[in-house]
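=== Structural record ===
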Amino acid sequence: MCVKGLYFFTVLSGLAASGVLQVSGMRVYTSGDVEAVNGTDVRLKCTFHTSAPINANSLTISWSFRPLVPGREESVFHYQQKPYPPVEGIFRKRVAWAGDIMGRDASIIIRQVKFTYNGTYICQVKNPPDVHGTVGEIRLRVVTTASFSELLLLALAIGGGITAVVILLVIILSCRRCKKRRQRQLEGNEEAPCKERKDPTACHPSRAIHLYLSETSIEIDSSDGMISEASTKDPSSSEEEGPSSDDDDGGDDSD
């Protein structure tokens, strides 16, 4: 048993020394299958994880293309300190950098895809000392029209956006109506005490003056058009004056 254990340990040590069992700190992640309509732009997403600190001067990103039909693998894009789009081949002036190395993003955009772009795209990232590791693959399928699933997702996205806008408008209008109702209630509460102070049996000073003037007789002299205010007559005094004048007349008659 000891001999077998020693032999097994020796084999593992040899494999590790040869690099077969070397543990890689670089991991590359891609979106898998991607579908794009002919003539549109498509984003090939690729992210990575490295155990070493990112060195912007030495980190490299390579994109390559393997067509569906038998043929050679073609370089699509290269990044080292700055983007290097292809200067020849079928991807010339069709590839743009869309990643961020500090954000661990190695994505690219292919503009105006064609049916000849059908195939597998390979994303490889190296960040020394993490130079060995997995690579990411994306299988692109260029179609004439969008599939039902993509149309459904687009319709759901548009419908969700419209629904969110409608709900927001309803909330805003409801808030405004509530504010107006509160303002009306506050104004009504402010006017209520004023109405409670009014006594129906009490007479306002202006009305009292009006009533006083209405009881006072006004005489108009037709000769010069002047208005003269007559004094208020007391009914009792007028009655007393009547008989006295008659008495005076009677005395004169007796004479």
Summary: The longest helix spans residues 148-197.
